[in-house]
Each structure stands twice: as C-alpha cells, then as structure tokens.
Automatic annotation (TrEMBL):
PROSITE patterns: MOSC
Classification via PANTHER family: METAL-SULFUR CLUSTER BIOSYNTHESIS PROTEINS YUAD-RELATED, MOSC DOMAIN-CONTAINING PROTEIN
Protein name: MOSC domain-containing protein
InterPro entries referenced in this protein's UniProt entry, alphabetically: MoCF_Sase_C, MOCOS_middle, MOSC_domain, Pyrv_Knase-like_insert_dom_sf
Pfam families: MOSC (PF03473), MOSC_N (PF03476)
Organism: Paenibacillus rhizoplanae
Sequence ranges assigned to domain MOSC in this UniProt record: 104-239
Superkingdom as given in the UniProt entry: Bacteria
Length: 241
C-alpha cells in the first residue's frame, strides 16, 4: 500500500548558486528539478568540474544577495536594497568580494558533468528534501533553534512522529502533487550549514553535531520521475516499490 508520510510545509528555490533564495506557494517541477532552481552560478575557470563553482564556502557574503526567478529573468537584491540582473554589473559586484578571477555562467548553463547536462548547477540529484522531524531532532542535539534555510532544501516536509522517515524513503518513490520523485541518497553536509542565513555569522558547532551524531547526513536528494506541480499543503505519499 501507498503511505502518506507528510505534507509540504515550505517550498524554496535558489536561482543563483549560493545566493539566498525565495519562498514559493507553488512551483513547477521539470526534468532537472524545481524550475528556475540553480539556474545561474559563478565559476573559477582555472578549476575543473564541481571545483569550478564559486560558492559561499569561499565568499560567505554571497548569501546576503537574494535571487528571484521570473520566467526568463533573474532579479538579485543586495542587502542594501540595490537591484541587479544577471549581467556584468552583478559580476563586477561579486568580483569585488574576492581576489580570485571569476566568470558568470551563461543563463541556464548546463553543469559540467556530461552524463547529467540537464541538471544545470544543481548538486547531486535534482531536488533536496528536509523534514521538520529531522530539524527537531537536530535542535535537540544542538540545543539551539535551527533555521531550515541553512540546509537550502527545496521542500520542507511536515511529518508525524509515526510516519516513515527519510531513512525509509531511500530507494522509494514519492508522489507530491502531480509529480513523482525517486529518493536516491542522503545529502552529506559541509561548512555551508554553519552560516546563519540572516546574520552570516558562522558556528562550526552545528556541523560538528551533524558529523558526530548524524554521520554528516541531513536531508535526502531525489530525482524527477514525473514532472508536474507542487503546492504548499500537498500530501507526500510514499509509493509501493
């Protein structure tokens, strides 16, 4: 039998890799993931593959820029209210934050792994899911509130205590709205989660807890089986294999 494991409590999209993103009431899910997610990124062309990406691990201030996707446009708002497009002015702005020479991707550029050219700049599989149950567990371990934005998930799933957790989702399919996802793997966490999304202050003790107590894993990656639409409140149903 299919089992309802929860419902969608939050939808997030990150049009520019390592920039702050946008909260949505609904989204379109296409072959590579949430439409408009990780459409654009910055590169160090002296590097290869995933090491090319310039991210907030190198420039934490990147997270202070908020990116929004609107059809074929990207709108970026700086912390001081200045607004940019995906253009030379924005490149100059981010270049001023680092001595490393950087390049901006073409709009909707494929990611460097030839076997998955459709994934753009999306890490691992296509969509990242996090549950409120896991957040509460981590809060208990860390002893502090945990903002779900630290984990940059696309879907925050609200689950009941007796519902199957992420460990039981692995290898299974989830039906959400009119889309179907295949849960492929855990997400292994890095220093990105140590940054407070509002203050940009870093606290390495959070990553230490995730490494020690959760084997560095938090959230799950899923690929798209059936494109469709997902809305806040949609049920998440784990299908029979």
């Amino acid at each position: 039998m299919s089992v309802t494991v929860g419902q969608i409590r939050s939808i997030n999209r990150y049009p520019v890799k390592s920039f702050a993103g946008e909260a949505l009431e609904a989204c379109k899910v296409v072959s590579y993931g949430v439409e408009g997610d990780r459409y654009c990124s910055f590169y160090d062309m002296t590097k290869k593959d995933w090491s090319q990406y310039i991210t907030a691990r190198k420039i934490p201030k990147m997270m202070s820029y908020k990116a929004e996707y609107a059809g074929e446009d990207i709108r970026v708002t700086a912390a001081d209210g200045r607004v940019f497009g995906w253009d030379q002015e924005l490149l100059d702005e981010i270049q001023s934050l680092t001595s490393t020479e950087i390049t901006m991707s073409a709009f909707k550029a494929p990611h460097p792994e030839e076997k998955h050219p459709e994934l753009l700049s999306v890490d691992g599989a296509s969509i990242l899911l996090v549950t409120d149950k896991s957040l509460k567990k981590l809060e208990a371990l860390w002893g502090k509130p945990v903002d779900q934005r630290r984990f940059r998930g696309n879907f925050l799933v609200e689950v009941s205590e007796d519902s199957p957790g992420e460990e039981e989702w692995l290898g299974r399919r989830l039906s959400i709205g009119s889309t179907v996802l295949q849960v492929d793997s855990y997400c292994e966490r890095c220093v990105m989660i140590t940054t407070n999304p509002d203050t940009l202050e870093r606290d390495s003790s959070l990553l230490k807890q995730v490494y020690k107590e959760l084997k560095q894993q938090f959230g799950v990656y899923a690929s798209v089986i059936t494109p469709g639409e997902v809305r806040l409140g949609d049920q998440v149903v784990m299908q029979d294999n």
